[in-house]
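The material for today's practical consists of a large collection of protein records. An example says more than a description, so a record of this kind follows:
***
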Amino acid sequence: MRIRGERECQDCGTRWSYYETGSPNCPDCDSLRSVGLDERTRHTASPATLDLTAARELAAADDLTGAAERATETCREFVRRQGFVDAGELAALDDTYLAATELRYVAAAIDRSMRTGDDEKQYLLALLGGADRGERPAPGAVPGSLRAARGLACARAVRAYRREVDTYLDDHPDAAASAALGTLLEHVKRVEALDGDVDPETAEKLVRAAREIGTYLREGEAGALVAARERLDRLA
């Protein structure tokens, strides 16, 4: 959506930035009566914090099922609120978003499982311990039973980012980037058709390609786009 992010309250005169608060309410008097001071700018991002305290407490109490359920809900809400166009500028596909997306899928898979082994438990605890800092286990550490969850999480995160980049390109057309996004989407669809059951390193390559396309658009680094194309070509 396009908004006027710099606001002035008509009741008390306070000025604030919706881009920073994510709220239409005046931060001083809570009034909803305000006027925009700038031009309408595309904006999809919202301030959000990934708080896994409750899920960690359940895990510490040896309630793995409860921890998985709470983590799924928390990460779903966090991911839902994220956007990658901030006041007209394209943001990166960040580690916290990726970790939250993976934790959501891994926790849901464990919650559905009839039995949870030590490997699955340790993997969930590793994600719970570091997702809010953007930490994810390396591809080689993924248990075979959670391979599909990791792959699907990567595909869904990349799809969401690709959609936002496509929106950004409405205002900043770039034929080369659009073509690369099309190729990226085809690979995402293939992983989704397999329900995420691909080698974790393959899934990670989709993430790297998406990030390289973003780097090209944000920084004008042509080499990043070349790297993304070559990475995607090797996946064919």
